[in-house]
């Protein structure tokens, strides 16, 4: 079990976190696409969701993108992409329908390294189902809008709530830290050219300020 550090999560903390979670979560209507593109993370539920979409005929290829970062190096023995691919192979997905990009360590690299890999493989895609954790889907949409705007993307995620987000490697306290950091990046990254800009509602900004004042700051950019 990893990252057991925690503090008492007050009702106000949880309310603020729920406001941010809802703002960060996006999900489009599903349609068939040329590729399922999984921007990997610590949450193996994303692999299961990708396998289910494949089995239901939404695409005939899955691309897993992700190396290891400071956190997932303690979760997986191989890269995120290889660990996710192993999971779906055990679910019955044929190896020939899997593509692995195992060098990226952040969302921008997920996109750029995947584009380069597809070009090298001479695989052309026009429509893509992009999968991430629910609370990362807005970030993914904004990053794709900026860095891969020529394609049509359907943004999707496994269905679970803030309270259902924890799993064996991460608890609710760390999830709240994570989404506070994700929101900060949505505010900061457009100025760095990493993603499109979006207006932040006052309620979301207030929730962010509350949680930062309560020292949910482990995932913040310093």
Automatic annotation (TrEMBL):
CDD domains: YdcF-like. Residues 34-181 form the DUF218 domain. Gene3D superfamilies: HUPs. InterPro entries: Cell_Envelope_Assoc, DUF218, Rhodanese-like_dom_sf, Rossmann-like_a/b/a_fold. One of its GO terms (cellular component) is plasma membrane. PANTHER family: DUF218 DOMAIN-CONTAINING PROTEIN (PTHR30336:SF20), INNER MEMBRANE PROTEIN, PROBABLE PERMEASE (PTHR30336). This is YdcF family protein.
């Amino acid at each position: 079990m990893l990252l057991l550090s925690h503090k008492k999560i007050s009702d106000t903390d949880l309310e603020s976190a729920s406001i941010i979670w809802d703002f960060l979560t996006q999900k489009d209507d599903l349609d068939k696409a040329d590729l399922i593109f999984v921007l990997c993370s610590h949450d193996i539920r994303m692999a299961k969701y990708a396998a289910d979409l494949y089995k239901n005929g939404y695409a005939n290829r899955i691309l897993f993108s992700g190396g290891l970062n400071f956190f997932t190096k303690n979760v997986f023995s191989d890269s995120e992409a290889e660990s996710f691919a192993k999971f779906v192979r055990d679910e019955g997905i044929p190896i020939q329908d899997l593509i692995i990009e195992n060098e990226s360590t952040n969302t921008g690299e997920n996109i750029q390294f995947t584009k380069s890999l597809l070009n090298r493989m001479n695989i052309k895609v026009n429509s893509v189902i992009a999968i991430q954790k629910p609370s990362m889907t807005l970030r993914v949409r904004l990053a794709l809008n900026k860095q891969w705007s020529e394609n049509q993307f359907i943004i999707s995620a496994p269905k679970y709530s803030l309270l259902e987000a924890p799993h064996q490697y991460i608890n609710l306290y760390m999830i709240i830290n994570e989404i506070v950091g994700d929101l900060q990046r949505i505010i900061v990254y457009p100025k760095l050219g990493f993603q499109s800009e979006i207006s932040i509602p006052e309620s979301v900004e207030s929730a962010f300020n509350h949680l930062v004042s309560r020292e949910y700051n482990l995932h913040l950019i310093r």
